[in-house]
Write a structure and sequence with these properties.
The chain has 444 residues and is α/β, with parallel strands linked by helices. Helix 5 packs across helix 9.
Length: 444
């Protein structure tokens, strides 16, 4: 007989404390609210457009990769079969292609052995944080507002974070330096800082060239490592692309976190980390930080899907490891989308009306995101009303502040919509904002 006695419920208080942290609910809530309101136009997700995706491309990319192994590298069919069907190298199997692509696109020149291929950039963050943060006093400096993926990963690993408010041009190097000194005075050890230098999620801000140079000097002066996350750097709307921090890094202070989710296809779930720092062990043994990250990866995901890597590898082979050129159409598309979004906001809210409402927004020169400051609380309750009554979704900015803030701000993403949808979406958003602003005015 089967015992049908119900097992006792688990107490949430007996589980890891991070499970009650709002930051871990942020992504799930947005997915849930999008599913609940499928007819609403959504400025919420930061995912790429599906306009150029074709299922037949997957088979072609896979074939391009296997042809590369057989023809360029001289592998037998048996070797190729084992390469794709078995577990494979923990650090990844397309590291050489990634190294060539980084050299061509970003002027980042590193040995392939310094690259760990990960299951999305999120795993790259987890591996890096786990390796670098050794004691409770170790603290991660983050821009505020900050991408919830890094703060959530830190929370899961019980790593302390310290927010550093960003300015109109993104992370402020002097503010990072001051925060590092203050933390040391408090008996903590600032270990590293996390930045998205180009078109940051969520704010859309970008660092100037001078700020990048100064941030590298601050890292050296304060003995900090820099975790550079750069998924949006390709997507420049106005002006020219700025160099990555890693391409300017002469002291190996920068760990470069990368992903093919925005520049290729998110479904492959392939990211990477460039970890070319030297590690000295007992007896003077030397290794690359990438090799140390590999030890952690072997105990978590074992290795990144060989099939996912092969699809990305084939795509890189097809574009001769020049992914920026291959993204020319996408770069133009996202630039048009962002220009459309900014133009429609201006059309619905000309300067005089903005002043009356106390409404404003920033004007990023690229990427997927911008931030609107509104005269009401832009929380999840307001979001549900926006979706249900006005048929438009957005992201509350308060989710991106680790110590409170952003209650009167919302994030708009223009990447997953067409220009026509953006026009209609802003029309709906304008009705929602006008309605909420009127309610705020009427309250005593």
């Amino acid at each position: 007989m089967t015992d049908t006695t119900a097992a006792p419920a688990l107490a949430l208080t007996d589980l890891h404390a991070s499970l009650t942290d709002p930051v871990l609910d942020a992504m799930n809530f947005l997915n849930e609210v999008v599913a609940r309101f499928p007819e609403a136009l959504s400025f919420a997700p930061g995912r790429p457009s599906e306009g150029t995706f074709e299922t037949d491309d997957l088979a072609r990319h896979l074939r391009s990769y296997t042809d590369h192994l057989e023809q360029a590298r001289g592998w037998s069919k048996d070797q190729v079969r084992t390469h794709l069907f078995q577990y494979g190298r923990t650090n990844g199997i397309i590291h050489e292609l990634i190294a060539r692509t980084l050299a061509n696109d970003e002027q980042i020149h590193v040995a392939p052995e310094s690259i760990v291929v990960t299951t999305g950039c999120q795993e790259a963050m987890l591996l890096t944080l786990r390796a670098l943060f050794a004691v409770p006093e170790d603290t991660l400096l983050v821009s505020s507002p900050c991408y919830v993926g890094i703060t959530g990963a830190a929370r899961l690993l019980d790593i302390a974070t310290h927010p550093v408010p960003e300015g109109a041009d993104g992370p402020d190097p002097e503010a990072f330096a001051a925060a590092a000194r203050r933390l040391r005075q408090e008996g903590r050890r600032p270990r590293a800082l996390y930045v998205v230098p180009d078109f940051a999620n969520p704010s859309g801000t970008s660092m100037t060239l001078a700020a990048r140079e100064r941030l590298l000097r601050v890292a050296a002066e304060e003995d900090l490592l820099i975790l550079e996350d750069d998924p949006y750097g390709f997507f420049v709307r106005a002006g020219s692309a700025r160099p990555t921090l890693k391409s300017m890094d002469h002291e190996r202070r920068v760990l470069h976190l990368g992903s093919f989710a925005k520049t290729a296809l998110p479904g492959a779930r392939v990211g990477y980390v460039v970890a070319d720092q030297e590690v000295v062990g007992p007896g003077g043994r030397r290794s690359l930080l990438a090799d140390e990250l590999s030890k952690i990866k072997s105990m978590t995901t074992v290795n990144t899907s060989a099939i996912g890597q092969a699809v990305i590898g084939g795509l890189l082979v097809e574009c001769d490891c020049r992914l920026r050129e291959a993204n020319a159409e996408a770069i133009a598309y996202y630039g048009t989308n962002l220009a459309t979004l900014l133009g429609e906001l201006e059309r619905h809210f000309p300067e005089e009306r903005r002043r009356e409402l106390g409404l404003s927004w920033n004007e990023p020169t690229g990427g997927f995101f911008l931030v609107v400051d509104v005269p009401f609380v832009a929380d999840t309750k307001a979001l549900e009303d926006s979706a249900r009554t006005f048929g438009v979704l957005w992201t509350p900015m308060s989710d991106f502040y680790t110590e409170g803030g952003g209650e009167h701000r919302l994030r708009l993403s223009c990447s997953a919509l067409t220009p026509d949808q953006i026009v209609e979406g802003v029309r709906r958003l304008a009705r929602f904002i006008e309605s909420r602003a009127a309610e705020a005015t009427e309250r005593p």
